[in-house]
UniProtKB/TrEMBL annotation:
Active site residues per record: H307, D364
InterPro entries in the record: Citrate_synth-like_lrg_a-sub, Citrate_synth-like_sm_a-sub, Citrate_synthase, Citrate_synthase_AS, Citrate_synthase_bac-typ, Citrate_synthase_sf, Citrate_synthase_typ-I
Position of the signal peptide: none
Record's protein name: Citrate synthase
Length: 424
């Protein structure tokens, strides 16, 4: 636990004073320790946990006002442009970027665990052919807990570490298979001669009939950046869900499944899917200007612009925009929906209404456009987010498991009926 900085907050309750210690992190606002309020018979009230630090962490730091996102101290734009996804995974897990030898060993470990047990493939047959891929992911990732439980000791650091490697390696396989299942194509098994992003795209788009299928390196690079830019985002809803489930001692694969379920919501991981649905509703370029006028009068909601945390700009969006431009330029796509998206971007970046309100395109806006250009269907957008975020979830789970922690137990402000009796 961080040491108190000597400062104290004083809370007056019913004529009594309670001194609450204040803690300082290496970055960010000080934190008031309110646990002693419970002894006075009171709870604190913070709907949505907007001003509550639920844990202490060394992994990721966000300053929403300044547009800063750091993983283990490194800015996200540097990680996205100077490392690959597996290097970022290593950093999140170990606290430092790998040496060349460490990277080689880590990449090899991940490659050796990309296959899943053959019985896992049978789980897919239990889903309707038109099931949403996220529904499949919740089920099949949770099902991994049935394969790794007998010899799993959460107090053994080696067991925890191999769990992390397995998840990083196997989730792309399950993600690609969830797509193949919904389109009725045979599963493509992982290839250990390909890098992480190439392997995923190969499992997504190769078929047994096309043995010469080659992944476009520009698309592989773009996918790797998407993975890196979504790797972790501090104590968001899905990460908090993983921590809360993990605090009970639950199987880690079940905890990650819980994180996937939380991510599914349109207010969280489903935002880039919502962007494409919004573009569908707008319809054509000539409808963009009238749509943006309706945004100003709050008749419609603008998806993919602004961010709950970032009040200035999303630091991931700049890199994602550059990647978006590279992909669209390389593919030479003439897609009316992408043209429509670019017109939305132009208006948002030039109209004073959106500039004053910091309604800049965020990472979800650009990632949705890139994924569509690559040929990934809208229903798979959140699956890819879940794939990328698995490293963040398991890193937070590892951090919690390696330190003393209590089972999560939020309290409530009860406003229901008082005690009453049944009179009969």
């Amino acid at each position: 636990m961080s040491e108190a900085n000597g400062k104290k907050a004083t809370l007056k309750l019913n004529g009594k004073e309670i001194e609450l210690p204040i803690y300082s992190g290496t970055l960010g606002p000080d934190v008031i320790d309110v646990k002693d309020v419970l002894a006075s018979g009171h709870f604190t009230f913070d709907p949505g946990f907007m001003a509550t630090a639920s844990c202490e962490s060394k992994i990721t730091y966000i300053d929403g006002n300044a547009g800063i996102l750091l993983h283990r101290g490194y800015p996200i734009d540097q990680l996205a442009t100077k490392t690959d996804y597996l290097e970022t995974c290593y950093l999140l897990l170990n606290g430092e970027l790998p040496t060349a030898e460490q990277k080689k060993e880590f990449d090899s470990q991940v490659r050796n665990h990309t296959m899943v047990h053959d019985q896992v493939s049978r789980f897919f047959n239990g889903f309707r052919r038109d099931a949403h891929p996220m529904a499949i992911m919740v089920g099949v990732v949770g099902a991994l807990s049935a394969f790794y439980h007998n010899n799993l000791d959460l107090d053994d650091v080696n067991h925890r570490e191999i769990t992390a490697i397995r998840l990083i390696a196997k989730v792309p396989t399950l993600a690609a298979w969830s797509y193949k299942y919904t389109v009725g194509q045979p599963f493509i098994y992982p290839r250990n001669d390909l890098d992480y992003a190439e392997n995923f795209l190969h499992m997504m788009f190769a078929t047994p009939a096309d043995r010469d299928y080659k992944v476009n390196p520009i698309l592989a690079k773009a996918m790797d950046r998407i993975f890196t830019l979504h790797a972790d985002h501090e104590q968001n809803a899905s990460t908090s869900t993983v921590r809360l489930a993990g605090s009970t001692g639950a199987n880690p694969y079940a905890c990650i499944s819980a994180g996937i379920a939380a991510l599914w919501g349109p207010a969280h991981g489903g935002a880039n899917e919502a962007v494409l649905k919004m573009l569908d509703e707008i319809g054509s370029v000539e409808n963009v200007a009238p749509f943006m006028e309706k945004v100003k009068t709050k008749e419609v909601k603008l998806m993919g612009f602004g961010h709950r945390v970032y009040k200035n700009f999303d630091p991931r969006a700049k890199v994602m925009k550059e990647t978006c431009d590279e992909v669209l330029g390389a593919l030479g796509i003439n897609d009316p929906q992408l043209e429509l998206a670019m017109e939305l971007e132009r208006i948002a970046l030039s109209d004073e209404y959106f500039i004053k309100r910091n309604l800049y395109p965020n990472v979800d806006f650009y990632s949705g456009i890139i994924l569509k250009a690559i040929g990934i269907p809208t229903s798979m957008f959140t699956v890819i987010f879940a794939l990328a975020r698995t490293i963040g979830w398991i890193t937070h789970w590892l951090e919690m498991q390696s330190t003393p922690h209590k089972i999560g137990r939020p309290r409530q402000l009860y406003t229901g009926e008082k005690q009453r009796n049944i009179d009969r």
